[in-house]
Every structure is written in C-alpha cells, then in structure tokens.
Amino acid sequence: MALMTVVACAFSLLGRNAAAQKSAGKEVTAIEILLEPDKVMFRHAAAANARLLSVYPSGYPLDALHAPHITIVQRFVRTADLDKAYAAAGRVFARENVTGMKLRATGYYYAQDRSIGLASIVIEPTFELIKLQQDLLDAIAPYTEKTGTVAAFATNRENLDVNPAGIASIATFVPKASGKNFNPHVFVGIAEAGYLNGMFTEPFDAFTFSPVGASVYQVGNNGTAMTKLHSFQLKD
User: Rounded to whole angstroms, how far apart are CA atoms 14 and 90?
Assistant: First the structure.
C-alpha cells in the first residue's frame, strides 16, 4: 500500500505540473536530437560496456534505453510546436551529408558523481559537427522555451523521478554544452571512479566511424534518451 501511495503521488505531481504548464500556454517537452553511430562505434561501445558491467554489475547495460548515441542538442520545445521543430531540423539534415562524416574517437573520459563515474568514449569535435549543432539550434530556436518542469520529461515504472539537475542541464545546454564547449561523446557505462582512473590511463587505439541515423528523443531522468519521438531521413 505504501508503494502504491508513492506511485500515485508521483503521477499526481506530474499531472499537476503538466496542468500548470498548459494553463500558462507553455506546455513543453524536453528533447534531445542525437546521431546514431555505425557498427564500428557500436562494437567499441559494447566492449567497453561489457567490461564495466563485469566490475560494476549494477551499472547500465547498452539497451533500448541506453543505446550508443551522440547528443547534439538538448532543449525544451513547446509541445504544440514539436512537428514544426522536427520539420525545421529535418531541413538541416536534408542539406548536410551527415552519413559522410568521418568522426574520430580519441579516448575515454568520465563525469564523477561521488565515488561513481559515468564513462564515455570521447569524439573529436570537428568543424562539421559543431556547425551541425549550431544549425540545429538555430533551426528549432523559434519553438523553444528557456526552461520546463518535470512534466517535460519521459518517465516509466523504473524511472518515476526526475532529478532537478536534469532540468538545469537542458536549460543551460546553451552555452555550457554548445559551440566551443561542445564535448561530443558516446556513453558506455558506469563504474567506480577508482577503476575508471586505471582504465583511462591504458593506451587507447583511436578509430574512425560515421553516423548512420539521426533522431529526436524525449529526455528521461539523468539525461537519458528515453522515448523516440521522430526519425530523420538522411542524405546518402
């Protein structure tokens, strides 16, 4: 009964936040525009993920909720204008040869949260990648809002709560993660920071890969690309 009450309260809170946004005329959705890498990157990401799960079994496997991807844009978009935002972003992808990009993975890094680290493969921020990000930001800018509430995020039974830090990270994506601060990467898993320190001092064989897809997801807790909303047609 206690668990049911907590769940009911959580959904009630989400409902109140959604109603508040609607009443203000600014119901928003937290979105992420991302690139899906080819089999070369997937193979490297899967190998790193398996290694991290072997030493930290409670970490995240690469699955439908944690598929390898490169975050390009995160913004709050007015829900009523999502189709317009998709169309605007689609025009950017239609004129760019995204699948022809040759991206270079150069090593590992991790973001530390207490004793735990969120590990990623670092990607060299090329001129083409930075330009793509800016073009997408400019294209969807007319449909964005500065911030949102937890109602803007995707949730499921395993992830009912939304970390307030997740709201802040999207609200400040520009400029903290864009332009000269853009740090393209592919998330590969979680482990103890001490283990990651050792892993990341090992030699890393740089490799080249290309994007094969581009999509829009609704963001879940901790920046997870949780729910696919739209897929783009890319130039061959």
Answer: 30
pLDDT at 26: 66
Which residue segment(s) compose the domain that 62 sits in?
28-231
Total residue length of the chain: 236
pLDDT at position 157 is 60
Predicted TM-score of the model (pTM): 0.86
Assess if residue 40 is contained within a domain.
yes
Query: Cβ(136)–Cβ(72) under 8 Å?
Result: yes
Count up the domains in the chain and report the number: 1
Q: Residue 157, Cα to own-chain centre: how many angstroms? A: 20
Sheet with 225-231, strands from edge to edge, namely: 144-145, 70-78, 28-37, 211-219, 225-231
CA distances for 163 relative to 155, 172, 185, 220, angstroms = 11, 15, 22, 9
Q: For residue 79, is it within any domain?
A: yes
Q: What is the pLDDT of residue 113?
A: 78
| Token digits of residue 221 | 């807790």
**Positions of the chain with pLDDT lower than 50, given as ranges:** 1-25
Q: How far apart are CA 94 and CA 1, in angstroms?
A: 52
Residue 70 CA to residue 101 CA, distance in Å, equals 13
CATH number at residue 219: 3.90.1140.10
The number of C-alpha atoms within 13 Å of 31 and in the hemisphere containing its C-beta is 31
